[in-house]
# Entry
Amino acid sequence: MNAPLDTRAVADAPAAATLRWTVDEIEALLALPLPELLFRAQTVHREHHDPTKVQLSTLLSIKTGGCPEDCAYCPQSRRFTTGVEDQPLMALDEVVEAAKAAKAAGASRFCMGAAWRGPKQRELDPVLDMVKAVKSLGLETCATLGLLKDGQAEQLAGAGLDYYNHNLDTSPEFYGDIIHTREYQDRLDTLGRVRDAGLHVCCGGIVGMGEDTHDRAGLLAQLANMEPYPESVPINALVQVEGTPLHGQEQVDILDFVRMIAAARITMPKAFVRLSAGRTQMTDEAQALCFLAGANSIFYGDKLLTTGNPEADRDRALLDRIGMRPL
# Structure
């Protein structure tokens, strides 16, 4: 089964749930001349989405720092000295106030992140109350809490959770260079539990960690070949934090990042492709190019877990300048 490589075939391709993409086929997409790649991505994007609309999400760290994992990019690991202090789980009323503020600022999805390997039941119980409260405000709800045990995804679904985020980060082959405290299969098992519970999947990865083009294609192949592929696909550029092992990496070339957005759009036509971490290091023009490549979701607000994010006023000004508006 071959991935379509002519413009007409790309535009007419069936949903990716029935289309298998090989790593080599996606690598060929990433190698296309940029004007051709963008044209193909826009063709697919317009078949499934309004190209002038973007979905706005806000991410709140409800439990910061102290994570036992050794993800080489993460300032919240207790194994690295980054200045991020271990903080307890936020109170319910604080989370509700943050969600109300996010909604007032224009966000339609509210994501709650906790720096755990995975939640114990005593930790999950108050999060369930948070999900119920945020859902009652009329917001879509998302959570990223680490690895889930049997039955936990069902509890989250019962509380009204819409999306669960659990990123694969990179290709299976490169994964062991970045993380040693959990296996790739652990992540896939959590995603399986999320699907079995009837939740939407939010799953993507990070570029700029020292991976090569083959690894980037391998990540997208993993995502695109899920059945079904994730409804939300965050593409992150590494945010380098002093004290983490990946601090000092060469910055990802913005045009290579744009290529990842475009290839994600082509291989997962119906997904929200989220321009996620790393936007503070992008110019407005670079972000506009990402939207042209098929990105139609952003994290909106002044912080992304523990790292900066473009302020809401700047985002609104950018969307106004390029004629885009929130969903």
